[in-house]
Every structure is written in structure tokens, then in C-alpha cells.
Amino acid sequence: MNKEVKIFLADDHPIFREGLKKIIMKEKDFRVSGAAATGTEALEFIIHNKPDVAILDVSMPGLNGIEVARKIREKEIDTHPVILTMYSDEEYLETALENGVTGYLLKESTHTEIIDCIRTVLNGGYYVSKELQSFLINGSKHKNNKTGAGKAIETLTHTEKQILKLLSQNRTSAQIAKEMFISFRTVQNHRMNISHKLGIAGHNSLLMFALENQEIL
């Protein structure tokens, strides 16, 4: 029997919250354990109840969704923050990932995509709306242009290129280790070496690079 997954919802629109709750509750192993209309209420609930996943709107009274995600990371709470928003700007996405968000969905996402996102982050991965992945690839403001990125990628070893490609497919380090028959620690060491060679630093920057350059990996 699957472990029951506790999911928390935070959005200041009650009709949207109810609609989202109905989508989530269709999954037999999912349970909506709470809901809030403000970021302050959301953070208080998360601190005391530690749900498995917290789905947060960006714009809420009090703390916004990204601020709540940052607090979750600072307090080392074992909850996966997922942003569900109408904002499709790269700036919002980058800020969210830098502040500990593991999933970023647009409010126009399909029911299937929402469920896929929740299951991906539960397994330790990152999930970004398909529309935003295309936006990042085609309209990237990343400091490396495609030519520069291509040259940088060519400096990587065959194994490092394999790992970077798997990262672009939202694989976790644990999944990569299993798929490549190497240890988790080896994957982590490779990731550090890749970041060094590409001149990348900062939380989730390697994931961003992989998503932006998916087409040339």
C-alpha cells in the first residue's frame, strides 16, 4: 500500500483552491492536509505540520510564495515547495529556483502536469512547466549564449556530458547514479566538476543551465 502523501495548498482565491483540491484528491495516495489564503498562515501551518508538498501561489497577502519557500529551506523543513502561478517570466522562475522551489507550474497547466510535478518533486527531482522550459531554451537571458554554451560543454568528459543530459531531463542525482551504475557520491562529485568547468555557481544554477541548453546536449 502506498504511503499517504500530505499536500498543502496556499492561494488567496478560494474557488481556485477548491478546484486544485479536487484534482489532487483524485489520486488515491494523495491527501490535502490543509489550506491557507495568506503566506503567513501557510508558513505557520508548514512549520507545525510539515506536509510532504506545499503548493504555493506567488502573489499572496503577507509573505509571497517564494518567500515561504525560502523560509522552508532556511528552517530545513522536509517539505517540497511548488509554485503554481500565472507568471511565466524567466526572472520569477530563476528567483523561485534560487530560493528552494522544486517545482514551478503555470496556472494554465493541465491536471496531468500538476500530478506529474508533485510526483517528480516527491522523488527528489525538479519540475518546470513545459511552456517555461521552451521559454528558457528559446528566450534565455543566461550569461552563456548558445555558441558559448556549446564550446563550454565540449570541455566536459563523456561521463559529465551524460550526467548533464540526464539533469536536463529532470533526473535526480540518485536516479542518475542508478541509471549509470555509479555511486551517488560520484554523481555529486561530477556535478561539482561540471559546474566548475562551466563557470556556474549558485543554488540550482546547473539545473537552469541544463534546461536552457537541452537542445544541444
Task: Summarize the topology.
Blueprint: E1 5-10, H1 14-25, E2 30-36, H2 39-49, E3 53-56, H3 65-74, E4 80-85, H4 90-98, E5 103-106, H5 111-122, E6 127-128, H6 130-138, H7 146-153, H8 158-168, H9 173-180, H10 184-198, H11 205-212
Parallel strand pairs: 1-2, 1-3, 3-4, 4-5, 5-6
Explained architecture:
The structure is a single chain. It is built from eleven helices and six strands. The chain is about 50% helix and about 15% strand. α8 packs across α10, α8 crosses α11 (about 205-210) and α9 (about 175-180) crosses α10. Strands 2-1-3-4-5-6 form a six-stranded parallel β-sheet, sandwiched between helices. It is globular, with a radius of gyration of 18 Å. α1 (about 15-25) links the parallel β1 (about 5-10) and β2. It has helices at about 15-25, 40-50, 65-75, 90-100, 110-120, 130-140, 145-155, 160-170, 175-180, 185-200, 205-210; strands at about 5-10, 30-35, 55, 80-85, 105, 125-130. With about 220 residues, the protein is of the alpha/beta class. It folds into two domains: about 5-135, Rossmann fold; about 140-215, Arc Repressor Mutant, subunit A, CATH 1.10.10.
Please provide a brief summary of the model.
With 217 residues, the protein is an alpha/beta fold. The protein is 52% helix and 13% strand.
Structural class: alpha/beta
Strand content: 5-15%
Overall shape: it is globular
The third-level CATH topology of the largest domain is Rossmann fold
Helix content: 40-55%
Instruction: State the CATH class of the largest domain.
Output: Alpha Beta
CATH architecture of the largest domain: 3-Layer(aba) Sandwich
Major sheet: order of its strands? 2-1-3-4-5-6
pLDDT < 50 stretches: 139-144
Number of domains: 2
* Average pLDDT taken over every residue: 86
CATH homology superfamily name of the largest domain = Response regulator
